[in-house]
Amino acid sequence: MADYDFDLFTIGAGSGGVRASRVASAYGAKVAVAEEYRVGGTCVIRGCVPKKMLVYGAHFAEDLEDAKQFGWNIEGKSFDWVRLRDAIQKDITRLNGLYTETLENHDVTIYNQRAEITGDHEVTLADGTVITAKYILIATGAQPHVPSFPGCELGITSNEAFHLDEVPEKILIAGGGYIANEFAGIFNEFGSKVCIMNRSDTLLRSYDASLRDRLLQISIMKGINFHFHSEFEKIEKLENGRLLVHMTNNDPVEVDQVMYATGRVPNSDGLGLENVGVDTGKRGEIVVDDYSQTNVDYIYAVGDVTNRVQLTPVAIREGQAFADTVFGKDGPKKVDHSCIPSAVFSHPPIAAVGLTEGEARNSLGSIKVYQSDFRPMKNVLAGRNERGLYKMVVDAANDKVVGIHMIGPESAEIMQAAAVAVKAGLTKADFDATTAIHPSMAEELVLLK
Ligand code: NDP
Description:
The protein has 449 residues and is an alpha/beta fold. The protein is built from 13 helices and 22 strands. α1 runs parallel beside α9 (312-327), α3 packs antiparallel against α4 and α3 crosses α6 (178-189). NADPH dihydro-nicotinamide-adenine-dinucleotide phosphate binds at residues 147, 175-180, 182, 198-200, 202, 205, 261-264, 310-311, 342-345. The site of NADPH dihydro-nicotinamide-adenine-dinucleotide phosphate has 23 residues, from α6 and β18.
């Protein structure tokens, strides 16, 4: 058997790569990881984590307003973007340190540079160092897709949104998915005039239609504008420094920033995949089997670069399963990609698990749908005319709950526990048999009629 420098060489130290590397090392493998930017990856450095902190920061706008009805005097409130931005970046640096420390504590060698596959079992670092490995794991994630049209370089993506010098007075966000709706909520709460431009009139396509409609209605009520069935024609920079956005089916709009949130594409370019013949798909995703193995038997890939489910906890599970399979003692492990709960941290947030009403009707035929459309108690006293909506989809044949869908305060926090019940295959009768926690919003889940 050939001698290699490492048992495992991981390219990319994000959520999936870090988990796989440290677990493989704990199993006794000699592991190295290459990261060209900062250890932690998209989620920690420029994704879920700083985004959630912005969501928290943004929510104070409403909380402080509502506080008046709860007896608080809040005259003189003001918001300092730079203070929040810098506090978030400071914490990101702390987390980056913790992730680096985790790898070091597991004796994983870190190369802070780009790596490319240059031959069989061989990678070459940006500084020319050639390293051999028995297994190679690609965990390079994805990057924002930027549409191509005249002036497209004048816009930013979520990567840059965390580092802005100031909150834009007016921003156009392109796309109607997770990032568009989350950042629309964030900037709107910080006082920007926000408009979303989308190629169709469907937001958050994979979510239940009732929730999507409710989010649209609440977003409009909060002052967010929508331009539907629109695509970019061009962006011009005006003498006043602002941007004039020309689009199909709508008048041009003048804004301070344009942000693209039109999906994320796998980071598979420049990895040298062609040097060893690794198969990729239409969007550049690395094609893998249930065990995250590519068509080249010693090369595996996990996380967003495989474009299976672009969510951090899924990448972590895939990284863990890879390490268990290749270096563990208990045989091959695969990740169950079904029934994955998810949330959109919009204002208010959406959370869901399982089948939407439409999917359940198509796949099961006979279903029962239970719904609660309610005004949370806090909103009533605050005088905030914003209703929550919970929907439960049940298979009529066996009473099993096959989907739960929520929009309203704290829905992501509530959903995590509800998702356990759906994943476990519990029935509507099981929910009904559970005593409510009163008063709460979550109690709606066990009181659905
Ligand atoms: P999404 O896939 O959520 O949404 C992309 C949006 O852009 C859709 O409205 C889509 O329209 C539109 N779009 C796609 N391609 C084009 C194009 N070529 N031109 C114009 N419009 C286009 O992507 P995001 O960028 O918002 O987020 C990327 C991924 O990151 C998400 O899918 C999610 O997996 C993950 N993420 C998860 C979060 C969470 O868990 N809370 C938060 C942020 C991101 P259409 O519907 O017609 O395809």
